[in-house]
Amino acid sequence: MTEKPRKGWVMKQQWNHLLFLHYPIHPEHLQPFLPESLTVDTFEGQAWIGIVPFEMSQIRFKGLPVVPFVSSLYELNVRTYVTYKGERGVYFFSLDANHVLGVQIARSIFHLPYFRAKMRMERMGEKWEFSSRRTHEGKGNPAFHLSYSGGEKLHIDGRRTLVNWLTERYCLFNVHNGFVYKGKIDHNKWELREGHYEIEKNELLQPFQYTFTEAPIAHYSEVLESYIYPFEKEAVQAGE
After folding, report:
1. Rounded to whole angstroms, how far apart are CA atoms 88 and 174?
2. Burial of residue 33 (number of CB atoms within 10 Å: 0-12, 13-18, 19+)
3. CA distance 96 to 103
4. CA distances from 30 to 115, 187, 188, 189 (A)
5. What integer pLDDT is reported at residue 105 of this predicted model?
6. Residue of 77, 84, 79, 88 whose CA lies nearest to 43
7. Domain map of the chain by residue range?
8. Matching Pfam families, A to Z (predicted)?
9. Is the pTM of the predicted complex or chain greater than 0.90?
10. CA within 20 to 30 Å of 132's CA: 52, 115, 147, 214, which one?
11. Quick check: 170 pLDDT over 50?
12. CATH of the domain spanning 21-235
């Protein structure tokens, strides 16, 4: 796929062997877990929580080269979908990563809830084995372990389908110290496959105190390059 020209980005990343796991949840249950400024987004009345394991590589800031040994990490994020003043985006409840410096940079520069974790990711035949246990002080130590692989390629058109709604998101929102932060993210459209998985342990959903009765839907992506833009911020208005 041909890359379109991009201007103004500050960081470039490559996302590898990524799995989307999405769990349906009632929006009324999920809303209290969000900052007051943000509203849970729904597809046909249904809210979703996503768990996303992957490898991040080729990390570099604009104008600087990729530096070996500090340009890749494993990541595991827990996310949902929100609106702010009518704009749709992603909200992260947590982002676990196995790179101490990367966690510190993300927390200090982007004010995102990154946490240190002990992680392992390796190829086992046709599957990827991924395991994580959070080690960040004061943030508990939830564990997550699964194996997964990609299946048949999905032929996704431009219609408003659930898979498009879940994955084609081009900004994130966060609220920190009285400010709403908006971060634009740009990339080509996802080239997705069916996701196949076996979950051995998942303690990431426990904080939501919700009985998930349906198995998650899964989608797999082999590789995608992404571009991060400077975050915009505005003060939270009274009543938000």
Report:
1. 13
2. middle
3. 8
4. 22, 28, 30, 28
5. 85
6. 88
7. 21-235
8. DUF2071
9. yes
10. 214
11. yes
12. 2.40.400
